[in-house]
Request: fold
Amino acid sequence: MNTFLLLAKDKDMKKSTKIILIIFIAVTVPALILGGSLFSAIVPTDNGFTFNFDTKAIIALILFIASIVLGIYLYWRFLLALSLDKVLFFSSIPLILIYGATMFLIADLSNINSPFAASFRSLLNISTDNAYNTILWAILVSLVFIAILFFNYIIICRPFNKVEKVISRLGDGRVREEKLNIGGGKQFKNIEHGLVKINNKYRENDKSLKNANLETQKFVPKQFFKFLGKGNITELELGHQVKKYATLVCIKLEGINNKDSLSLEDNFNILNSYLNVIAPLVRKFNGFIDRYLGDGIIAVFPNAENAINCSLAIIRAMRIENRSNKKLTAVKERISILSGEVIFGIVGDEERKIPTIVSNETSLLEKMDEIVSYMSSKMVFTKSVIDNLPLNYKLIYRYIGSLNMDEFKEVMLFEDLEVYSKEETVRLIKNKGLFERGVIFYNNGEYQKAMDYFRENLKSNPNDKGGYIYFNKTKEKLNEE
Reply:
């Protein structure tokens, strides 16, 4: 089958190929005509050849070289239009023919009677008496042929390696390239086109999944996935759970639902305005909001330090927010913090999976919030929180009493003193010992001693709301006696 006839018949042949084909014909015809001058310039001698190139011979040589280069290029373009099996076959034919002709000449060179043959025999040191050189030249030519054939197959099959790597990356979901480039012939171009479509589909799905995850994080925080050891919502399974030690924070906004002069819609907007302040701070300190309450939230943090830092930041932010809403009554925050074991899990059914936390500590949070409200405190935490803070963490607090959850469990509560104004904090710190001794005597039922300490505390700091509450409770106990 003639290569150039195939090229000429190809309706899809590129315009550039047609031009090169015309140039090839235009170069080859005069090269053949002037071929005699080229061969006449090569003169055989006893020791090889001498070259006597005149103008005609030089032109013929240039035309022959150009013809060979263009022919190889056209043949390569022909191969690119074939499938791989045909490429391997047609690319091997010229090499096999050249190898066969060369081996025939080496083997029969001693029997050819011509000046050219004699010069070749002298140049290659081949004769009927020296068969050893003939064998060596045959071996050398064979090795060269094998090497050329080997590299020929490597070049032709190189796109296969690229296909393998691309498929491996696509199989692993590692989609990075904007465009895949495999190279090779027409068959590989079709494969490349198919892989590009797959790659684009991967990229679209990957983008959609990322967008879905971003949307999901508005409902299921990414920190929740971290606690469960999952990457995204598609990995969540109903009933999946993990028990971990965490810190829970209950933040209540006192006064949100008590604005009788406002409509429900206005109250809702006010609540959202405060939550828009709180929620970013919770995320900033690596926490997440587990649930929204009618007048606050319950947030979860990986450790006590983050929970305390976030709570202090929220109190400062609430002051600023209250100052910006001058027309409204200031909203007061109540914060309860405890540390303990929490189960992070997925509840619900197959139609709707709800990520949430399950813990006995949530009931303790509710009781703590009642204490915070009753004591008119701002921030109260348990001893478990203090025990889980770093040793060098600076925290100023006072003991405000204990909660008896049952006959086996008593929870010690502490109030943060730095959340008040500087003057008030200084007074609370100054009387900390008086107040705490009064609380201890109260818990032990020694009400008269407790009364003495609470009275002394109020003389020094009459604005201590917690002190007044304990003073009145102690007075009631003494009256009952």
